[in-house]
Amino acid sequence: MAGVKRPLATMTGATEEPLTVGRRLKYCTLTSVSSEPENISRTPTPPNPFARARIPDFSSDASLVLVGLRGSGKSTLAIMAASALKKSIINVEAAFQSSTGSSSSSFRQSNGNVECQRRQAAVLQEVLEQNPTGCIIVCPWMERKVQSLLRQFAATNPVVHVLRDIGAIQGHLKIKDWSKAHNLMQMSNLFYRSCTNLEFFNVSEVRETSFEGNEADHQGLTANAPYLALKPAERHFLKFLSLVYPAATADSSEGSEPTASYAEGAANTLIPIRQLKPDGTIPTGSALLAGVNRAGPVLALYGENTDWIGIRACIRRGLSPANAVRQATWGLIIGAGGMARAAVYAMLQVGIKNIAIYNRTKANAEKLVFHFQQLLQEKEHNPLANARDVKFHVFTSLEEPWPTEYRHPSVIISCIPTHPIGDTPSPELKMPDAWLSHQTGGVIIELGYKTLNTPLLMQAREGASRGWVAMDGLDLLPEQGCAQFELFTGRRAPRRVMRREILENYRDEHGKSHLEELQHRLRSIVEQDS
């Protein structure tokens, strides 16, 4: 559950006028509090003048600070935010250890509480001043000088108080006395509400859930790995961030990518264009979507490929926060045809820069790799990735060992048919167990939809306890359909209706309905799209 905090003035009866948030400065200078004498009388904590009823207009690159009690989930939420917003993570406790050579608790024992607080304030001030943009900053401290620095930073940046239910905090801190835990919560709430401008309540997930949010189904899709239970929290927090950074976190999966069809070498959707730009070219981005439902003569056709949009959505939905894409993340693509091109493009879109291709015909795999190596050198594709940063590796046999210098893949996408074609039998593909050795599992996506229980999908479901999530063509099709709907109409797709229609009307290669088997997916539609 995400929420915006109430103004402290409302809770305390104060009548201070809220300050106006101006443009974000490139460099932030905070008033030093480290030199304040310790022997003077301390005045009560003043109300936070930056608290307000509406969400401030923060710059899209403004750094975000997460504060709260230990066990509230700050570090986990920081990973989610950093992955979604493409920002770096700074933990001020780690910065303190780097600066002093010891943890805060050890430093306090050796040097005393006053000196520890002074050094904490100095470290936090340096972190905030040097990183006003591009970072997610985690601060676990609850000291008076820290409070003052956070209050200043909250004038221009989001400072989020992360809360959690008292039972979860009590369990994490191993506090046996409930009243002590309650008093700690009360005190921390008063402290943090005086120096933050936003609140997020981190809901604890106590039930064991399947990937799609339900109890274990008969196929064994239970997500026993604890980090998979974080998916609901991730959805809630990303929605919260979309309120804080509306321009930065808008999901472009519903929009078009002007160079996608060119990059993949194919288009599967043709959109009639009835209004051109003054220079006679086809509009792009929001201008394209704004004009698709106009009446009038067709002046041009716009080709788009929505395969990559669907694949990208599946990757994002399937990856747990523990497997958030990082510099060393590897993806594996099975096949080298048209859908494999879409899969490569989708991986590049989510930030995966290490991609392995398995294909029995080496020439086809090398042709695919060459296509993207050339593409990434072109100027218009520089935002996608730098050619020097992207690494490809080709496998032609499943007997080959996974290179020891590479991390095992956490994203595996099969782009080959799952059913017989003519006299060619279905591949019946399974991954070598050694290739599925990623420590926290990952997502395995079978793009075919005519067979729902392929050997690869069954292998993924058997690995659920190790963090593997299985997804198939029935996860992909709605994402493609929603993208096409929005490209044609310029309106948001009725996602729940479209998902339900696909599942209720699905027939396999033999014309058989699997409605009973798909009931768990039908029940989870509301949660997926909420």
UniProtKB/TrEMBL annotation:
<feature type="domain" description="Quinate/shikimate 5-dehydrogenase/glutamyl-tRNA reductase">
    <location>
        <begin position="332"/>
        <end position="375"/>
    </location>
</feature>
<dbReference type="GO" id="GO:0003866">
    <property type="term" value="F:3-phosphoshikimate 1-carboxyvinyltransferase activity"/>
</dbReference>
<dbReference type="Pfam" id="PF18317">
    <property type="entry name" value="SDH_C"/>
</dbReference>
<protein>
    <submittedName>
        <fullName>NAD(P)-binding protein</fullName>
    </submittedName>
</protein>
<dbReference type="InterPro" id="IPR006151">
    <property type="entry name" value="Shikm_DH/Glu-tRNA_Rdtase"/>
</dbReference>
<dbReference type="GO" id="GO:0009423">
    <property type="term" value="P:chorismate biosynthetic process"/>
</dbReference>
<dbReference type="Pfam" id="PF01488">
    <property type="entry name" value="Shikimate_DH"/>
</dbReference>
<dbReference type="Pfam" id="PF01202">
    <property type="entry name" value="SKI"/>
</dbReference>
<dbReference type="InterPro" id="IPR041121">
    <property type="entry name" value="SDH_C"/>
</dbReference>
<feature type="domain" description="SDH C-terminal">
    <location>
        <begin position="473"/>
        <end position="502"/>
    </location>
</feature>
<dbReference type="InterPro" id="IPR036291">
    <property type="entry name" value="NAD(P)-bd_dom_sf"/>
</dbReference>
<dbReference type="InterPro" id="IPR031322">
    <property type="entry name" value="Shikimate/glucono_kinase"/>
</dbReference>
<dbReference type="InterPro" id="IPR027417">
    <property type="entry name" value="P-loop_NTPase"/>
</dbReference>
